[in-house]
Structures are given as C-alpha cells and as structure tokens.
Amino acid sequence: MQQGTYQKQCADSPSLRQPTPSKQTMQPSTMALAVHSAVLSMASLLCGVAFAQSAPAAEEKVQKVEITGSSIKRTSAETALPVQMIKREDIEKAGVTTAAELLSKISSSAAGLTDGASFSDNGGTQRGFNGANLRGIGVSSTLVLLNGRRLANFASPGGSSGVDLNAIPAAAIARVEVLKDGASAIYGADAIGGVINFITRPDYRGAEISAYYGDTQHGGAGKQIFTVSGGIGDINKDKFNLMGVLNFQKTDSLRATQRDWIGSAYQPDINLDVGSSNTFPANVRRTTASGRATGSRLNPSAPNCNPPATVYAADSFVGSKACLYDYMHDTEIFPESKRTSFLTRGTLEIAPDHKLFAEALHSETTTTYRISPLTISNLNYPLNGQYYPTDFITSNQTPLAVNLRLREAGPRLMANFVWDQLECTQLGVLWKDI
Description:
elongated, mainly beta, six-stranded antiparallel β-sheet, 9% helix, disordered N terminus, Ferric Hydroxamate Uptake Protein, Chain A, domain 1
C-alpha cells in the first residue's frame, strides 16, 4: 500500500499543493491488527453457521396411530370426556388374572363385580356373572365393547343384565379404555354410566403358558386358571398376524358355614333371627274346623331337634316347643363355576394401505349352585293318619298343619349354562391425509 504526501510550494500561489507519489510502505498499528483479527473471526463463525444450516435434516420415521372412535357427527359445543387408559404393562404389574379383577382396580367401578354372590335362599338367575358397574348406576348402564364393538349381554332376565366379563380372556388384552362419563348421546341408554373398551393385542408373536392356583385361609372359593396363548406372523414383514388365547377357569364354591360372620341365620347375640319354621323333623300346628293353622308350633324332637341345621331356639319366633331350621348350613355365598373361553384374531395386509381383520370369541360358562332342601308348608295331616303323633299330642287332637323340610333328599341343585359367541370381519383403511 502506498501513501500520498503533500509538499508546500513557495511559488506564485502559496495555497497551491500538488500530490507526489511516495514509495514508502505503511506499517499497521497494534490496534489495527486487533480489529482485523476480530473481523476475520466473526466471518469464520458466520460461515460455520451457514454451513450447519445448509446440511440436510435426518428423515424421521412416521409412527402409525390407531384411532378408536365413532364417525357419528357431533356438535362443536361438545367437549372431550375423561378417558382412563390401562396398558398391558399395568395389567401385568397388577397381577390380575381376569378382566373382572382388572376392573375392580378402577376407582370408578362400584358394586357390579358380584360373580353371582348371594345370601338368598331363593336361587338366582345371575350366578357366575361378573358385570361392570361404572359410577354405581348399574351393570345395565355400563357399555362394554371389544375392539370398539358391542358384546351380547349375559343371559339373565330383568333390567340388571350386562356383559359378562368372564368371556374376555385377560391374556388377550392389550389395553383397556375406560370412558368415565356418560356417553348415552353416542352409544345409547346402556352407556349412561360410561363405556369400557377392551382392545386385544394387535401384533402378538410367540407363545405363553400360565397357570394360577389360589385358595383361602378358611377354605372355599378356591380358584384355578390355566391359559395358553400364541401368535405368529409379523404384520410389517410377513404381512399377516394370527393370535389366539385359550383360557380355562374353575372356581370352587364358598359355603356360608365356612365363614363365621355369616355361618348361621340364628344369632341371638346380635338379634338375628331369620331362620325357617320348615324343619326336619317337621313342625306341626293344630288346625281349626276350617283347616286354618292355630296355636303354637310343636315339634316332637324338641328340645334336642336335629342339629346342626335343625336347632332348638326357644327365644326365636317358633317358640320353646318347636325347632328352627338354619338354612345357612345349605347356602352358598359363591357358586361353583367352570369357564372356558377362546379368542382369536387374524390380520392380513392385502395392500399397503388396506388391512383385513377377522376375529372370533367363544365362551362357555357352567355355574352350579345349591340351596336348602325343598319345603312343604301347611300340609294338612288327618287325625286318623298312620303317623299321627298320638304320644306327643295327647289332648285336643285335631288335624295338623305340617311344615316339613325334605332334608333327607339333599339340597336343591341348580345349574346355569351360558354360551357366548362373537364372529366379526372388517376392512381397515389407512388414512394419510386428514
């Protein structure tokens, strides 16, 4: 770099100056070097940033999303409803063996998981039934779905019918979606309490065998479960998947006598007196001329009676000259049940964006329960009958009204057989532009 200098000329024009070139080289100062270095550093940084921005971004793999819902049009004023999601990992950590046990862990489920429990001596129509009851409204107001589709209700009369959860093998469940609020506007009156949607395992591969045995401290209500599950085919590689679950479950009966707190219908210390006057041997009463029973009850075996079922209870409603039948000795709190269920699901990718689904569910439940022996009430026995207790009723002999329980014939045995079947085929389409 060259520098121009000015020399003063003492000529006619004192103010006239002419530049003359000089060959002297300029020496930069320390401050100039510092500024120059800073400028170069900033330039290199800017170049580095520009270079990083120009590099192509790594391509991310798009994750598939499965949506469970309805295509029914709804108003924009409707808001989202609370949904609880129970994943497969949660099911395994909870250690539950049935779908009914799984729902018992949900705080919004109440008073519906009966399994047919009853302290009644009149039999029942729902023995062995396990129903879901969200918000305590009733099993008939809780909708149960399997992969978004309805299941048939348990074969019981009346308004308390619902889906039997025993038909769904727990080993086949991938997740459970619980809608904790009413959805009757979408699904109908049976969804007032909420909706429970069981989703089966979509791409299960491998094989599993599990066995469970449980018993109680005081006996009764033992449970044995045996499950075999398996699946083949990778839907991404093989373009198909087939899975199946076979479940067998047996539950032993629980008799009322196996629990002290409910083992007797006559407990005077707590003023419990709900026994029966139909006994063996029979209680009798004198009758009027019109045949109506009158007077106190009498039993020839009193006060010994015939324990443990026929007992002497002087302060009970039958009086001190008769016997009382404690029917809780023949009552079962839980019945004996045997259940077999099989669920299979197949998936076939017929095109990159089209899948064909087919599933089948078959369940059989046999429930056997026992109640107290058959009774005969107010049977008129003639005065001249062969077995008239003349040695017991020595005076004021009249025809007798007999209240008898046929204990020697054994308890009444009843059985419910429930058969469930579901078959479904559907076509799934992958929506890319939503």
